[in-house]
Structure of Argininosuccinate synthase:
Amino acid sequence: MAEKEVKKVLMAYSGGLDTSVIIPWIKETYGDDVEVIGMTANVGQEEDYEYLKKKAVNCGASKLYVEDLREEFITDYIYPAMRAGAKYEGKYLLGTAYARPLIAKRMIEIAHEEGCDTIVHGCTGKGNDQVRFELGLREFDPTIQIIAPWRIWDIQSREDAFDYAEAHNVPLPITRETNYSKDENLWHLSHEGLDLEDPSQQPKLDDILELGVSPQQAPDESTYVTIDFEAGNPVAVDGEKLDPIALVEKLNELGGANGIGILDIVENRLVGMKSRGVYETPGGHIIYHAHEKLEELCLDRDTLQFKQVLAHKYAELVYNGLWNSPLRKALQQFVDETQKHVTGQVKLELYKGNVIDAGTTSPYSLYNEELATFDEDDIYNQNDAEGFIKLFGLPQTARVLAEKEWKKDGKI
């Protein structure tokens, strides 16, 4: 598609290194008369939003939208995927991937309200987020022009970006020496770059962590927490009903204080390379663990085991930016059907990075103590197991007998 004239731009603005230099770059590249409007999505990151508005304007933007998307982020993105048990490559709780389709949706809404002809984002050409953003944008407007400066400008590295910022007197919240690439929201905080690019090196957790402490620095005493679920969603902590934002914040606080939810992972990016990062997801780790524990009690065997298979594909779709795909939506319908009776209370012990099970109850529990007991019971006849084993093993018996005949006849 040929590039259209750029007159009015809506830019995804975080105030970090990349987006700080993009505003003056747009003016230099497309003309001083181009209007640049910024949008910052509040998905739970710690920011001084009034300062951010002033900074964006000082850098050349006409104004900055600050959109509070925190509750929608949790209820419409995090919780549905958590109910699915989605973990990319079995580990990563998808903190960055959840936020992108939501931010993209709101950007299109604002772009249409403002009459913007172009959307600009600061994702690099090596990362996953460029795919997530652009697929999200095109879901709601497949014809809008998208500019990704990292794919077309002369800046080739973060060092170059620092040079450009200094040359244009752009204030930055970081220095060259503390230049970890970070993404923060209510669900997680990621750290990439610098010494983390060498997977042979142990991360310096005490220097990196911001949402909590390392397991070594956690208290020597256990912390107990109970979480109540209704239809697969967490609704209360230690008996106190909490709205989604307060609930995640509370568990972030408890998990962070006890060294919970720290992940050092080399993951396979969608664009084909491996990348190494350290993720902090203290509250999310606790919620996922508690939810899985409750499902053990409430889901029948076939449903639980099939759902575990499905979770892998669901996570892959989300990681790859396909949140709005028909397949993800169809999988969600299955997931939500399975969650109707995932209601109950899970008690956990938090201790130096470990989440230890401490008891689970549910009014919909499928656990039958009389059936499971090693003591005498009146409802299970152990002699019935013999016939079951013979029938279950009948294909094996038929195969072994056939193989004996084939050997006798010299066929094998």
The chain has a mean pLDDT of 94.
